[in-house]
Specification:
Oligomer: single chain
Strand order of the largest sheet: 1-2-3-4-5-6-7-8-9-10-11-12-13-14-15-16
Structural class: alpha/beta
CATH topology of one domain: Leucine-rich repeat, LRR (right-handed beta-alpha superhelix)
Largest sheet: 16 strands, mixed
CATH class of one domain: Alpha Beta
Radius of gyration: 24 Å
Strand content: 5-15%
Number of strands: 16
Shape: globular
Helix content: 25-40%
């Protein structure tokens, strides 16, 4: 046991500070520790980690440890070899990050005079749903983490464009930035990222922000950008999609929950010849727009919630995407006052529509309510009967309220639930 390098205690609700401290004494070779969801872990465990982990510990997750606070952060500054730190949903504020990174003793933990903290080592920092983190942290301690490659700030609702501007100037190695649900971030913040021409920024998530056409027009200045998430960006319009359509290196695009977009905007995406993943969940795509979408590299497509797409639209998309491997569709419950697409009514139409998709390996069928489930199940049986090697997953969900086709700001493309079962 003394040579154990990985310790995973995630979701063990009875784990306490004293238990963690006792284990650390007996496991001097640890490089990875996962305490996610250990509700009884607090600052005392962090202090033990700081004492025992030293330069060896590389990865630490304290996700959803609600009692991990600024005092705990001050203890973590001793982990000078740490590469990845997850503080998601912890009680962390600007002061705690200041103490952890090496800015002294703000926030009740002090840092003493023990060196540079985590400045030189940290590559990944997850601060998702830490609402007490503000621009003060971004302009100060976070900006000092110049080796950061991935920064997750989703749900940090106090973060603004000013904080982003400070990050853009300081974090030149950044490859992934998650700003989902940062409601005070808008075009000025995105423009600051673009103006800095961050050479490695490949993945940008601005879902649920105030970004609009103005910000979208600046994205071309990010030379490495390959993945863009514009989910639930209510100010993104067809003109913004025209700007996105000029990002020729884009490989992944998410447009969930943007019912304001129309076929005119979707037609602008045809120039994305490198695009392999496209999520249009809850968008107002019609058969006309589907026929205009010619995406030869596309392998993953989500049409869930595209209520106006019929079998003809699916057939057009399948024919124009010869590499399509995974497809998601959604059935609607007529009892909820929302009709499903015509291909739901006759399973043979869907089978015929997907005939051109020779590379298709998996289809996910989501159904809202009992009536929709019967139609989806019939389609699943027809598909598997026609194409034996095709994996078809069928999932039943509760009907969404009228007018809420895509739910509330889903953070990522809706995936089949764990209960979704393949149809043999």
């Amino acid at each position: 046991m003394r040579w154990l390098e990985q310790l995973d205690l995630g979701e063990l609700a009875l784990v306490t500070d004293s238990g963690v401290a006792a284990l650390l004494v007996t496991l001097p070779a640890l490089t990875q520790v996962d305490l996610s969801g250990c509700e009884r872990v607090s600052a005392a465990a962090a202090a033990a980690l700081g004492r025992a982990g030293g330069p060896r510990l590389r990865t630490l997750s304290l996700e959803r440890c609600a009692d991990v606070d600024d005092v705990a952060c001050a203890s973590l500054r001793r982990l000078r070899g740490l590469h990845a730190l997850v503080l998601r949903e912890c009680a962390v504020s600007d002061a705690g990050l200041h103490a952890m990174v090496g800015g002294g003793g703000g926030g009740g933990g002090g840092g003493g005079g023990d060196g540079l903290g985590l400045c030189g080592s940290l590559r990944t920092l997850n601060l998702i749903m830490c609402p007490r983190v503000t621009d003060v942290a971004l302009c100060g301690p976070v900006a000092q983490l110049t080796a950061l490659v991935q920064l997750d700030l989703a749900g940090c609702v106090a973060v603004t464009d000013a904080g982003l501007a400070a990050l853009a100037r300081a974090l030149r190695a950044l490859a992934g930035l998650n700003l989902q649900m940062c409601e005070r971030v808008g075009d000025a913040g995105v423009a600051a990222l673009a103006a800095a021409r961050l050479p490695r920024l490949a993945c940008l998530n601005v879902a649920g922000t105030q970004v609009s056409e103005v910000g979208a027009r600046t994205l071309h200045a990010l030379p490495a950008l390959t993945a863009l998430n514009l989910t639930a960006c209510r100010h993104v319009n067809d003109a913004a999609l025209r700007a996105v359509g000029e990002l020729s290196h884009l490989r992944s695009l998410s447009l969930l929950s943007n019912p304001q977009l129309t076929d005119v905007g979707f037609a602008s995406l045809t120039g994305l010849h490198a695009l392999v993943s496209l999520d249009l969940y809850g968008c107002n795509l019609t058969d006309t727009g589907a026929r205009a979408l010619v995406l030869p590299a596309l392998t993953d497509l989500n049409l869930g919630g595209c209520r106006a797409v019929t079998a003809a639209g699916v057939a057009a998309l399948a024919a124009a995407a010869p590499r399509l491997a995974r497809l998601k569709l959604r059935w609607f419950d007529p009892a909820a006052g929302v009709a499903g697409a015509p291909y739901c009514e006759d399973p043979r139409l869907l089978v015929k529509a997907l005939a051109p998709a020779a590379a298709l390996r998996g289809v996910s069928l989501v159904a809202e309510g009992a009536a929709a489930a019967a139609a989806a199940a019939a389609a699943a049986r027809a598909l598997t009967a026609e194409r034996r090697r095709l994996k078809v997953a069928l999932e039943m969900v509760s009907p969404l309220p009228p007018g809420d086709a895509a739910g509330v700001n889903p953070p990522c493309p809706p995936a089949a639930a764990a209960s979704a079962a393949p149809v043999e």
